[in-house]
Amino acid sequence: MSIRVMLVDDQVLLRTGFRMVLAAQPDMEVVAEAGDGAEAIENLRGTAVDVVLMDVRMPRLDGVEATRRICAEPGAPKVLILTTFDLDEYAFSGLKAGASGFMLKDVPPSELLTAIRAVHSGDAVVAPSTTRRLLDRFSAMLPSGKENGAAYGALERLTGREREVMLLVAQGLSNGEIAARLVLSEATVKTHVGRILTKLGLRDRVQVVVLAYESGLVRAGGGAL
Question: Is 0.90 topped by the overall pTM?
């Protein structure tokens, strides 16, 4: 079954370029397009979409707010933010809004296709270490653990081992690296990560990192509290 993609960008030429790249793939199809966030939300009401490629700077409703509204709906498609500038406040806000990752608009087509497939399969397309650098840069925008009681309280649902795994995910370690650090099998680490996502109601590893910062579990610079 093909991955159903929606293109959201106010520049028609960019949408045309993306559509041509995706149309050449046997496992993808562009099922909808929109010139701004408001149009994207409207189109989603009548079209089944798996992955949304979302620009951020658009008229009427920007991509960040559109992402927030889309991801708040049950059974929402995955959102991949497309940004012009690496590690900017738009990408940060997009991740906070529920996006599964972000990429630069000038990314090579092969990387874009890989990202779409990864997002569709449930993975995040931003390496945790990259996400951490982004969060470090904008850490002043995040409440501390004491200020954000809801985020900190959510961690009470985790076992001690799950908190250990979450901390290492937030510090940018891969499943293999976590397995080596905790002397566990990689399959066991994957199971722990899955349980963390389920217990905390998170979509992917990117949101694990965001929550770790919001709760105060990890401080700016990547260190643990």
Answer: no
